[in-house]
Amino acid sequence: MNQPWVWKVLGLVVFLAGMIGCNGDEQASDDGKYTIVATVGMVGDIARNVAGEHAHVTVLMGEGTDPHLYRATSDDAKALKNADVVFYNGLLLEGKMAELLEQAAGDKPTIAVAEVVSEDRLLGDDPHIWMDPQLWTAAIDAVEATLIAHDASNTDAYRANAEAYRAEVAALGEYGTRTLATIPTDRRIMITSHDAFQYFGRAFDLEVRGVQGLSTESEAGLQQVNALVDLIVEQQIQAVFVETSVPQKSIEALINGAKSRGHDVVIGGSLFSDAMGSASTYEGTYVGMLDHNITTVTRALGGEAPAEGLNGKLSQNGD
């Protein structure tokens, strides 16, 4: 690996080896599998893909759940206590779970996968690094290193699984670059419910604006709404986007504000920001989630993308 986060990942391996012990033995369930708990779906998807058949993976926050506002339940506390390995995003995404995660870190590998990214690649306190497929591979590296340190007997499987998953994510990034580039120059402004898409914008050369800030705890101020209405009208923006885990009232305020000034703007689709789709769907995977976002944004802003997305599996595309 020659990624800028490689030294953090190598340091993680050394740390884990010391925490787990030199024998690397894991606690196992009756079927021989150990238990991984992940806070959010995007992190859980990495764990499932890398661990494969060797672990049970539980995700605490499901479809439509806002991690900025989420408060852990007693069942979550029990799951974290009983887990063998815990993965979370970090960078304050799961801020209200900080105490529980600190407790878990006292006696088991508890890894913030986003925090292995080199600081010069981070956008301040923005935790939404999964929006950039290339950057998200750092999280894959962190999960791979953790599972190898935890269960060295299955090292070859974890390496092979991680490599296959990295290839899928790389193909996703290439699809995003290729399709989003077809959006006309004068239509490359993407307005969403909250400021979760800055990494997406940087990765794919889009100007991104959110009505709310990085956390959905912040209220959408009247000044911000008015400024975005001005932008929509001046630039004749045709579509704005809601998010599956955020109420759409702030976007409706933009639509109504633009309409009052004689400009019609529509909802171009519902994007996955802080949560993936239903567990039983393609959009309930990381690749499917981003495929949906890339395809929906491209088509709504006047670019060219297949309605069924990169892998021909999209069940919803914002049309």
- Termini separation (Å)? 40 Å
SS-based class:
alpha/beta
Rg, Å, rounded = 20 Å
Strand-residue proportion: 5-15%
Number of helices: 10
User: What value does the average pLDDT take?
Assistant: 90
Can you give the helix content as a percent range?
40-55%
Residue runs with pLDDT of under 50 for 5 or more positions:
20-27
Strand order, largest beta sheet: 2-1-3-4
Shape: globular
Please describe the biggest sheet, giving its number of strands, its sense, and whether it closes into a barrel. Answer: 4 strands, parallel
Number of DSSP E strands: 8
The sequence of SSEs as H and E is: HEHEHEHEHHEHEHEHEH
Write up what this structure looks like:
- It is a single chain.
- With about 325 residues, the protein is an alpha/beta fold.
- It is built from 10 helices and 8 strands.
- The chain has helices at about 5-20, 40-50, 75-80, 100-105, 135-150, 155-180, 200-205, 220-235, 250-260, 285-300; strands at about 35-40, 55-60, 85-90, 110, 190-195, 205-210, 240-245, 265-270.
- The chain has a 4-stranded parallel beta sheet with strand order 2-1-3-4, sandwiched between helices. Strands 5-6 form a two-stranded parallel sheet.
- The two termini are about 40 Å apart.
- Residues about 20-25 have low confidence and may be disordered.
